[in-house]
Structures are given as C-alpha cells and as structure tokens.
Specification:
single chain; 429 residues; alpha/beta; FAD/NAD(P)-binding domain; 2 domains; 9-stranded mixed β-sheet; 5-stranded parallel β-sheet; globular; disordered N terminus
C-alpha cells in the first residue's frame, strides 16, 4: 500500500516499453522482436485507436494505397491508386499487428514515465514496468491546437476542434467559420459547404499542391524528387521546416484548392487575428499569402519539369492563380451572420503530459534530435522527425530502422557505458 492508502500497481520488468499501438509503435515492435529484445506495447485504447475514434467520417489518407506500407508489409488490394478511409487504415494496422505477432496491452493508458535509477519506470493504473528503454510512439496528433481566443466566442457559437468534428449533420443549424486552410481545413470547408451551409474559411500561410501532375500522383513526384526523403540534418532551419503547414490535398482523385472552394461558394478571408465581442477579425494579408503559395507551387512544378526532361511523361501544366476578392472581408459579425459553429483546423501537438523528465523546451515542446530524446528514450511519428515523410505511414520504415538499430546497440552496451551517457546528458541540461 502507498502512504495515501491506495494500492500500488504491480510491477514487472522488460527491456523496452513502447507507448502506442499505431503504425509507428507496431513497426518498432517488429524491429525489436527481430532482434530478440523483450518488450511490451502499451495502448490507451484499441490498436489503431485514433483512426477508429478520432477522425471525421469521410476522412481518407492523403497518400495513395500503393504508398501505404510498413516493414515487410504493404497494401495488396486491387485499388493501388485509391485512398484508404480511416476504417480501412485501422484494419490495415490491426492486420499488421497480427502479422508481426505484437505483444500489445490494450486499454492501458500510461500515467507516468520517469527516470528510476539508471532505468525507467512506466506506470499505468493497473501495472508498472521497470525497463531500460522507452519508445514514445503515441503520435503527433494527441491534442488539438485550439487558440486561447476560442474562449471569447459568443455564447451562441459552438466551438469544435478538428478532432471533435464528425460530419455536417451533427453541426448546429447555421453558418460555419473554419479556421485554418491546410489539408484538414480545406476538406472540412468543402464538405460542409456541399451540405448547403454558408461557410467562411480563414486562410493564413498554406501550401498549394495539385493532386496529380503530368499524369502522376503528386506523391510520386515528391518521392522521385527526393523531397520526402530529405533528412532533418539537411535543412538550414529545422524549426521552420517542422512547422510548415500540411499541403492542400484531399484523399481523392481531384485537386482541392482555394479556387475550387470559391467555386463552391465558400467565402475566403485572411488569417483570424482576433475577436472583438461578436466580431471576428481577419488579417489583410490574404492576397500576399495566396501569391506566395502560387509562387512556391510554380517553383515546385519547375523542378518536376526538369526531372521529367526528355521523357514522355505527360504535358507541362500550370494552374490558374488563386482568385482573391478585390476587397477580402476583414471582419465577420458571428451573430448577425448567423454563424453557429467555429471549427479550429489549426493543427495538433503530441501529448506527453505523463512524461516526468526535463526534456522540454521553454514552450513545453519535446526536445529531440531526430527522435533521440535522452539516453534510452526515443520518440516516433513526429512531423519531420528524421525525414519529411516521418509523419506518413510509410515513413515509419526508415525511421524505425534508424532508431531501432540505435536502441538495440544501446541495450547491448555495458551498464557503465549507459550510466556515463546519462551523466553526460544531465550535465548538458
């Protein structure tokens, strides 16, 4: 019994605890098993839990099926150019867990991870583990980034994050303001407008991208150009690179951009910069933001054309500039315009609230070097963690090979060598 009278959880030992049974955690489990490393995978809900319970109904992967793979396992269906639904992704990951024979404890949320001597102590409500290494593979989308000004919305306006949204039928009657114009914001604005509602989309910095170019999916071009394989130690401004918005894509064989939304009747405004009573205020820089996105798109296509030089791969294409009103709206009275819902498509961040170690920066963000957090402590699945493709399902293959090899080597070092590494790390804090 503990001092407060509560029963302490039973404790066991293992070499590695992997937190999260999504694609990254399971890929690491496969690597560890291949090297005979004793480990356990802890999952707060079900295998592929977020894909089962934290996605809107119509969501599909932004990557085509032919690109969906994990170590020694790939898509084998009859629609390689299609895009998996969230339910299909969950099935794919679950089948992979069976394929590798993963040892997963479902319904086991982690409550704390802390240093315990030269090892780690991982606690859940039911059980605790002492281990030599921890892999945090709980994903980059644990918490929705909802700005603080959401608390200032009028009482008549419902506030939803992208994790809360499911479909237009569940929304209150009235108009909708979608904040954020990356992949999520564009898709939600398009779907909600198609349901017949008045939609305004607040647009800041964004990455415009066609679904196909010269007869090939854009992901094929990004792969062939080496963009997705670019490493974190090959960019000048890594902090900036990790914050680049996700491209404006939809999991379908069509291009979805601001021009397509305008044609559907969506009102395009600048970035939401504040609330004054019932009035939402937007930046006046919309035209500049769109011009910059158009310029970056043209440069990217120039690079693809150079790659295709001398081949018979389709015809060179260019896309119409983004259409912007002569006087884009700078304000929106939410009450007078009968806006019933604001949806925050403003990104996500990982949830490490249970991590009790000094490994965060002054803004509470995890400090890591390509997934290496501290001696024996690793992260997986973060945006541009080791490569631009790190957050994609197929990106786990290379990242797990890198980090997994380091982890196996770490475990095989002598206790004195591991202790020295930890002392060096502590001295640098």
């Amino acid at each position: 019994m503990s001092r407060n009278g509560l029963r302490r959880p039973a404790t066991g030992t293992t070499d590695v605890v992997v937190i999260g049974a999504g694609h990254s955690g399971l890929a690491m489990s496969a690597h560890l098993s291949a090297h005979g490393i004793d480990h356990v995978v802890l999952e707060r809900g079900e295998i592929a839990n977020a894909w089962r319970h934290e996605r809107w109904d119509s969501l599909r992967l932004l990557t085509p099926n032919w690109q969906t793979r994990l170590p020694d396992y790939c898509y084998e269906g009859d629609d390689p150019d299609g895009f998996m639904s969230a339910a299909e992704v969950a099935q794919f990951i679950t089948r992979y867990a069976g394929f590798i024979g993963a040892t997963v404890r479902t319904g086991t949320p982690v409550r704390s991870v802390a240093q315990h001597g030269e090892d780690f102590r991982v606690c859940t409500e039911q059980y605790g583990w002492r281990c030599r290494s921890v892999v945090m593979a709980n994903g980059a989308h644990g918490i929705a980034n909802v700005p603080s000004l959401a608390a200032s919305l009028p009482a008549s306006v419902r506030s939803l994050s992208a994790k809360d949204y499911r479909n237009p039928e569940r929304l209150d009657a009235g108009g909708v303001l979608v904040v954020g114009a990356s992949a999520t914001g564009l898709q939600l604005a398009d779907e909600i407008a198609a349901s017949g509602r008045e939609v305004t989309l607040a647009v800041g910095e964004h990455i415009r991208m066609p679904r196909t170019y010269r007869g090939r999916d854009i992901q094929w071009w990004l792969t062939q150009a080496g963009i997705l394989d670019q490493r974190f130690d090959q960019v000048e401004d890594l902090v900036r690179a990790r914050r680049v918005p996700s491209p404006q894509l939809v999991g379908a064989s069509r291009t979805l951009d601001l021009n397509a939304l305008t044609a559907r009747g969506v009102r395009i405004a600048g970035r939401l910069v504040g609330l004054d009573g019932n009035t939402a205020k937007f930046s006046g820089a919309l035209r500049n933001e769109c011009a910059m996105a158009d310029l970056k798109l043209a440069r990217m296509l120039d690079n693809f054309d150079a790659l295709a030089a001398g081949s018979s791969m389709g015809e060179r294409e260019r896309f119409a500039p983004t259409r912007v009103e002569d006087s884009p709206p700078l304000t929106l009275d939410l009450v007078k315009q009968r806006v019933a819902t604001v949806i925050w498509a403003t990104g996500f961040r990982p949830d490490y609230s249970w991590l009790q170690m000094p490994v965060f920066d002054h803004k509470g963000r995890l400090r890591h070097h390509g997934g290496f957090v501290a001696p024996g402590l690793y992260a997986l699945g973060l945006n541009f963690m080791r490569r631009r493709k790190s957050s994609f399902i197929h990106g786990a293959e290379d990242d797990v090979r890198d980090l997994g090899s380091h982890l196996v080597g770490w475990l095989r070092q002598s206790p004195s060598t591991r202790a020295a590494a930890r002392m060096e790390m502590r001295a640098g804090i």
